[in-house]
Design goal:
74% helix, single chain, disordered N terminus, Growth Hormone, Chain: A, 19 helices, disordered C terminus, mainly alpha
């Protein structure tokens, strides 16, 4: 969630916040940290988790995607749920349920159970993220809100980056189950802070009558169905499968209901008409592609290091964390940059850095290891802080003050949608391109070639026979094909960012005095 220049503290708030207010801010930031951490905490541990619950590499993407899809649905609903239940009740419910669903993930023994737990985590964790900014806007006076925004900004950046490292350390030193059990003590602390620092508000049940039920159902069916189609399409032979056809119909019905809500609901759950604004529409498209790059690269790098470099979960997590170094260094300077750097220059440089970081990773080889990602990860971190931070500001500044909340929810939903589409697309690309490269490599090796025969003969003597030599050659082909496939994925991500780079020309300078918005 984000705040705009028009969001201020509660009129009744004192000029300086008391200890209770700061503890409330700490509670909100802790909840947001817990939720953002769990977006990526499974990435470095995913190969281990897949093996233990019996999921294939393609099926394993569901463990990451399920969380993102659920977040996409809940983020735009958070403002309505907050009004209906009251902020404290809403947060308490989300924190308790998030902890429970984390335990479900931790004790999962199969893919179905894990996905159910991750969907529950996404629904409840997604609610914890935007409400953190609501606490800052309502409990702190305007003069102290930049401090609260900075605290939240640190959690928003650190969470996804620390996730793979913490998940990797727990997987290697204890067990992957504790990547989820970790949320139990944190959840207890969060609930305690909420009970002692947040005032109770009476539920407003009349909000149920005013809800955009068409939109709510449409988002769930449309986004859920679309994700299933993308995830399972390749494995089910696309529209030759009855399941894919049925899911495509569900997706279409969902989007029809979503658009019906735009017409008939008094207050649509997500205000899609904002996309018609030239600046906001451009921001949304760039946010979608950036989401694809951020979540796609954070997923692919640990997969590459595990499959090719034989890295364990902890080693992969350390490489992913490198991109957070520039973000943390630049974070204190973000208010200065926002006031003094033209948004078109900042976003342009940020997108260019992100695209370059992906293109650098298109020349990986089977000998590549972690340090081959250092340069690209550092560039990725610079691009993220420059591009994404300014885009978040532009999303709020490009709409009227009364639409700032809708703009923030839509922008963050679009970013997560990009991540979901990337993870689903990566699974499909990985299947298709690995098969394609394997066949091309096999075609280049003639069985009658003297060189091939000599190679197999030498290999057979060292390994104990021709069968072992053929198996080794097959493994080498598969390995090289997989490396080429990862290079293709980074190329697609890089070119995708370059394709939206011209949209920076539609951005307008930020208003003077614009306050820093995060997430």
């Amino acid at each position: 969630m984000s705040t705009s220049k028009g969001s201020g503290a509660d009129p009744a708030a004192p000029q300086r916040a008391d200890a209770s207010a700061w503890l409330a801010v700490a509670a909100g930031s802790l909840g947001a940290m817990m939720a953002t951490l769990d977006i990526s905490i499974v990435n470095s541990a995913l190969p281990t988790i897949q093996g233990e619950i019996g999921a294939s590499g393609t099926e394993g993407t569901w463990i990451s995607t399920a969380y993102l899809v659920a977040e996409i649905v809940i983020i735009p609903l958070s403002a309505w749920l907050e009004r209906m239940l009251g902020l404290r009740t809403f947060l308490l419910g989300a924190a308790i349920l998030f902890t429970i669903f984390s335990m479900v993930c931790g004790v999962s023994t199969n893919l179905t159970m894990m996905v159910i737990g991750r969907v529950g985590q996404g629904f409840t964790g997604g609610a914890l993220i935007p409400t953190a900014m609501t606490i800052i806007a309502t409990r702190l006076p305007r003069s102290q809100q930049p401090i609260g925004n900075a605290i939240f900004g640190v959690t928003a950046i650190l969470g996804p980056l620390l996730g793979p490292l913490i998940g990797g350390w727990l997987t290697e030193n204890i067990s992957w189950h504790y990547a989820f059990f970790l949320n139990l003590p944190v959840g207890i602390l969060l609930v305690t802070l909420l009970l002692t620092t947040m005032p109770h508000a009476r539920p407003q049940w009349r909000e149920l009558r005013q809800a955009d039920w068409f939109g709510i159902a449409g988002m769930a069916l449309g986004l859920g169905g679309l994700t299933i189609v993308l995830e399972e399409g390749q494995r089910e032979q696309w529209f030759q499968s009855r399941v894919i056809v049925e899911m495509a119909i569900v997706t279409a019905i969902g989007f029809v209901l979503l658009f019906a809500g735009q017409v008939y609901a008094k207050r649509p759950v997500i205000k899609l008409s904002l996309l018609l604004d030239r600046q906001f529409g451009s921001v949304a498209v760039m946010g979608l592609v950036i989401g694809m790059m951020l979540y796609g690269s954070a997923y692919v790098i640990p997969q590459f290091l595990a499959a090719i470099a034989d890295y364990n979960a902890l080693q992969s997590g350390k490489i992913v964390l490198i991109s957070g170094i520039p973000s943390m260094i630049l974070m204190p300077f973000t208010p200065f940059m926002i006031r003094n750097i033209d948004i078109r220059i900042a976003v342009g440089l940020g997108l260019a850095a992100m695209a370059t970081s992906c293109l650098i990773d298109t020349v990986l080889t089977a000998q590549a290891v972690g340090h081959d990602f250092v340069d690209s990860q550092l560039l990725r971190g610079v691009g993220t802080i420059m591009g994404f931070l300014f885009l978040n500001q532009a999303a709020i500044a490009s709409v009227p003050r009364e639409d700032a909340g809708d703009a923030a929810g839509l922008f963050n939903a679009v970013r997560n949608l990009g991540g979901s589409l990337a993870l689903a697309g990566i699974a499909t690309v990985q299947d298709q391109r690995t098969w394609f490269h394997s066949r091309r490599l096999e075609e280049s090796l003639s069985a009658n070639s003297v060189g091939v025969q000599d190679y197999l003969s030498t290999l057979g003597k060292s390994l104990g026979g021709p069968d072992a030599a053929l198996r080794t050659l097959s493994g080498t082909i598969q390995r090289e094909a997989l490396v080429m496939t990862f290079n293709d994925i980074f190329w697609i991500l890089g070119v995708g960012i370059l394709a939206v780079l011209p949209l920076v020309l539609f951005l307008r300078p930020l208003p003077k005095g614009q306050s820093v918005a995060m997430h």
